[in-house]
Amino acid sequence: MSTAAATGMDDAMTTPACVVVFDLDGTLVDSSRDIHDALGIALQAIDDGRQSAAHDEEALEKGGHGMSLENFFRFARPHGSREGEAAFIQVYRKHYYAHLLDHTLPFPGVMEGLRELADLRSQWRSKTSTGLPQLRLTVATAKRTETAHRVVNELGMASYFDVVMGSDGLPTKPDPAVILAVFSQLGRLPKGRLPEAAASRWDLMVGDTEFDIQAGKAAGVTTCAVRWSEIPHERLLGAGPDHFVEEFAQIVALIKQQAEALRS
Hints:
- By secondary structure, the chain is of the alpha/beta class.
- The chain has 2 domains: 187 residues, HAD superfamily/HAD-like (Rossmann fold, 3-Layer(aba) Sandwich), CATH 3.40.50.1000; 68 residues.
- It has 11 helices and 8 strands.
- The protein has a 6-stranded parallel β-sheet, sandwiched between helices. Strands 2-3 form a two-stranded antiparallel ribbon.
- The longest helix has 18 residues.
- The relative contact order is 0.17.
């Protein structure tokens, strides 16, 4: 962690004015089928705590969206053991890592929108000799960092992101830990954790689950929920996002609007 981030100070000359944090699964990429398949195979392979095949199928239909693997196993197998949980995770990861891109693709408009945001990042620079980019685009996901990097690399998205952060060893959302870890890498705290004098800052968390919205609020950033989420909209809206968008182009427009305000 940088000295500025550790002390809560904000050096406007060396830290970005705007940090955008995207969730990955369900927000940038449609990975639901590959994840669902891996969860199902892992449940089939592990007898520990099984109530019935029907109960497992119900858990697959109702759960898994934005949950950590540990939490999903406890949801599907409330009487399962820690050993069963560890075995479930091992089977899931072995299958998923071999098949994580069988059906996974970016959502419509995502690649075009990321290109626009990358162009904005290249144009919007600090008025110092170093000319540091004032917009940073990042990913904060419940996935392991290695797996998240593989997804963005193989889908041709890697060049758009300054930080790709998984939840390795961190509490998963709704805990804000992974979001705060992203900001730590960038050398500052989220705007909501900075002194009120830091007006020339704006940050955004974009996600498809209530866990993303809750984590963003806890971290101290503006939040945006996406309508293409598989989560029932009333549940998502119940988390109180600051923005709710129908398509990715609206996220781009929101960021451009805020960038213009910060530059003026």
